[in-house]
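Sample A.
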Amino acid sequence: MFARVIAELGPWSWWLLGLLLLAAELLMPGVFLVWIGIGALATGILSLLFWESAAWGWQVQLLVFAALAVVATLLGRRFLSKPDLVTDEPLLNQRGASLVGRTATLAEPIAEGRGRVRLDDTYWPVMGPDLPVGTKVKIISSNGRDLTVEPA
């Protein structure tokens, strides 16, 4: 069936597929079908050039399309990816890391290396040396949700 469609439409089948993929991108979230559509359009350009060649069978066209779609995707990711932006709030979405350096009072004792502190409106699990309730501690690191503390 695929071979018949390509034979009937000629090199324009790739142009049609490319335009359909670009139109489908408008209906779907993300920016992925654009690169596959560009691969199809590039295959259409090559098909216009090589259509009369005996070596330009549908199998070769599919391989060229797959390769061009991968190349277009990789180039698109490389050139359109956002570089690391310098910001005045580098820890904005890293709440645990933003707590490093703060001091707090133990809400639960640290027993066998584990305890809890209350910071703002949240209780945080902490790890550190065994200490009684009410001890002032300084947060020295964050590992996911667990904070590592030492006596302040």
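Sample B.
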Amino acid sequence: MTKKQNDIFEAAKKLFYKFGVRRVTIEDICEEANASKMTFYKYFPNKIELVKAVVDNYFSNAMEKYREMMQSEITAEEKIRRTFELKLESAMGLEMDFLADLYKYPDDALKEHLNVWKQRSIDLTKSWFIEMQQNGLIIKELNFPVFMLYADAIQSFVLNDETMNFFGTTRELTHTVSRLLLYGITERKGEENPTE
């Protein structure tokens, strides 16, 4: 990527994250990047292709962090807690207008592009789920579609503003939620300091 192409990309990312896709024009991006429209079209045929590049950057970075964490030697509980932390970090780095615009934007090519990333994420999660289940870390009675429904419900609970108001830090929230997911509401006996 040339410097000017990167300037356009970074300007678009900043504006899309802040205002959403629909409200940001090519003119806005060019002004933010200090680039002409001619320069814009030299690198990107249209706004949708630039949106796709921003989406690719966002999802590939998020999935790489997730892959690295899942391949690390940390415990199953820590992996689940870190999964929630990574999702929260990703969600909090974006304005909701950007996400809403992405999934409601009336462009079939963009919708298909997002569906490809969604399927990649599901496939990665499924491979982790199967590995954990085969290693006896997830109960064998739980099937993957039910797990995904449960995980989606927990994610909605975690990302709810009211839920977040009860916790001082993201780490505190994700620690509590991962313990709820793994152990329910019962206290674990013999645990030295369950809040660390």
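B remarks: DSSP finds ten helices and no strands in the chain. The first helix runs from residue 3 to 19.
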